[in-house]
Amino acid sequence: MPNSVFPLLSNESNYNVPPDVAGDYSFAVFVNNQLKYNSGAFDYRNHMIVLAGHAPELFEGSVVLSGFNHRAFQGEGNRFVIVSAKESTLSQRAANFSFLFLIYIFTILIILISLTVYQRLRHITLNYATKIQLYLNFAFFTPLIIVSLSTVSIIIQTFKTSLDHQYLELADNLANRISGPLNEYRSLAIETEELADEVSRMAEVADLDINIFHTNGRLITSSLMQVYQNEILSKNIEPTAYVGIIEDLSSAFVLEEKVGSLNYKSAYVAIRSFDTGAILGILGLPFFESQTDLDRRIIDVLSNIINIFTLLFIFFLFISFFISRGLTFPLRLITQKIKRTTLSSFNEPLSWNSDDEIGMMVTAYNRMLVNLEESKKALAKSEKESAWREMARQVAHEIKNPLTPMKLSLQHMQRTLLESRENGEKERKTQQIQSLLEQIETLNDIATSFSDFARMPSPSIEKVELRALLLEIIELYNKSDEGVISSDIQPDEFYVEGDRKWLGRAFSNLIINAFQAVGDSARAKIDIKMHASGSDAIRIEIKDNGSGIPDHIREKVFSPNFSTKYTGSGLGLAITRKGIEHANGKIWFESAEGKGTTFFMEIARI
User: Fold this and answer.
1) How far apart are CA 347 and CA 341, in angstroms?
2) Which long-range contacts does 300-306 make (Cβ < 8 Å, 24+ apart)?
3) Integer CA distances (angstroms), 571 to 101, 333, 564, 581, in order
4) Mean pLDDT, the chain, integer
5) pLDDT, tens only, 184-240
6) In what order do the strands lie in the sheet with 68-74?
7) How far apart are CA 326 and CA 20, in angstroms?
């Protein structure tokens, strides 16, 4: 019988028909160009003419015909054999590629994981894009592997159950067919040889191996008698099968058995009498190819899963690459912007039309640019003021050194002239000396301003009642002949934190500038207002009726080197702004040419 596995169980070599090798090959034996025997899936009888047309090629190499590869081998005399195997399908080729590809990929992953562990030990980190790709691949393939393994496990279990069910169906059908001959044998109507012939015939028709056991567990007959005669298999039934059928009265079940290195399954079914239902014997069907059949089905499933897995793997590698590039693009853009961010040029802000994490980062970056611009302005102002302080210190020192002896000399000359008797000459020279003294006094005031600006001390923070301080300053300057001051001050106590002297100097400078802005041709009218601005600030307004500030010089008003007066030092408003800012306030102005200027101060209250 072609599908018998007796040669696998026996060490004898006198069998001229080989077993079906894993069910993958078909073969045919020819004697004098006549087909004597064939086995397998290929139909040699209907393709003999076609094969004969390729006779020379068959002996030299393989020939593809009807989806099979064929090769002929010459034997003794006029005997030759044609062996045929199915062509590899696209799925099988893809499975080979997928298998090798996955081995390659998992080898690379093991290397990467090893390198990552090594780098972690050395405190070396991977870049952000690589981490995203690794995390995405890990998040995708971990559940995929788990699902694949679970699917394979379920399919294997399903295959096993399906095979067991098939085996039991075959065993039950054969048990019904052999019940009659066995009943005749038990009633001594036929001999053992006749029963053996009937069993062999059924085995050949069913293409199976059949064993018949007595109810006492001993072998009656078998289609594999040589295996039992050579004592390869025991003539006693498997004890578990005997207990299950005879003692536990089970109808049928499947057992896993082993002979040497061959694992296989056997189905055992009780053979019952059609008349009485009594157990006549036990039918045993050893399925020596059961493990091979299971392996084939598992390989088919694994091939499909590996192909699908590989396709998904390659597809997702590309997807994860582009996803990681898309996710890291804003970071690369911000990195490039940060690299070009400098203090010396304008830094363009970023735009991002989303409120996600990248949007938060872009917002923070743009806020940083705003702060950077403010810091640039503050730094430039600080550097300019520092330079002016140093220059003011030197100028004040150089101016004051000769002023004192000059003033003393002129005062001495003035006393001498007062004692002179020439009235006309005395009056003329006295006027000249007086003019020189006034100029020296002006220079002394300028030097004093420079000196004050250069050594402006750090403010002493104290609690100041702003309303009382402003009223004192107004009272001090309201007696001037240059004009009049009107005030509208809210009758409340306003407390702020600042330096009282600095704030007083700031108010004084603004009032003096208001008087000077009118000029000699008109009388100054100054309006001063003070009121609460909300619940946390105080606003002060000082308005004059002067000529106003021209547009082209408004940006320079608070600069320490700028003045519109011929005798001015240009430091008054710079000192004023610093005093207001140190009190946690701000100062600005509104001006109209020919109508006057209003300075606004807003200081945080406590």
Assistant:
1) 6
2) 301/151, 301/152, 301/155, 301/156, 302/95, 302/152, 303/91, 303/92, 303/95, 303/98, 304/91, 304/95, 305/148, 305/151, 305/152, 306/95, 306/98, 306/99, 306/102
3) 80, 45, 11, 16
4) 80
5) 888 888 888 898 999 888 888 887 889 999 999 999 999 888 878 877 788 899 899
6) 34-39, 25-31, 79-86, 68-74, 63-65
7) 57
Q: Are residues 156 and 164 in contact, defined by beta-carbon separation less than 8 angstroms?
A: no
Token duo for residue 227: 């295996």
CA dist., res. 564 & res. 553, Å (int): 9
Distances (CA, A) of 476 to 143, 193, 224, 469, 535: 86, 147, 135, 11, 30
Of 134, 154, 110, 111, the closest CA to residue 305 belongs to 154
- Using the Cα atoms of residue 9, residue 10, residue 11 and residue 14 in order, give the sign of their dihedral: negative
CB atoms within 10 A of CB 450: 26
Residues 6+ apart with CB under 8 A from 348: 337
CB neighbourhood size of 267 (10 A): 27
Q: What pTM value is reported for the model?
A: 0.43
Cα 208 to its chain centre, rounded Å, is 60
Which tokens in the block code for residue 605?
């209250």
Residue 279 CA: distances (Å) to CA of 202, 218, 222:
20, 14, 18
